[in-house]
Amino acid sequence: EGLGNNAMKAVAVAEKFGLNTNWYAKLKQANSMRDHYHNGYWLQYYIFKDLQDHFIRKNDPMMLKKIASAYFSSNWGEAL
Q1: Which own/partner pairs from 37-41 qualify as long-range (CB within 8 Å, at least 24 positions apart)?
Q2: Confidence (pTM)
């Protein structure tokens, strides 16, 4: 069973910007409905923090704002 659409969009955004999402292999697996929501929540959070770090190092305040908006609005599509 896969994770929710938002979590998979977060993965797509991370990969678009060159982040290695293999670190999250365990979170990409959902064995129950509880895991589905729990893992999706943490997957999005960790990707958000990694993207934040990525754009801080690149000194890109516009993208920092964009990914923060995407994360807090649960609309990762706007960061693609």
Answers
A1: 37/4, 39/3, 39/7, 40/3, 40/4, 40/6, 40/7
A2: 0.87
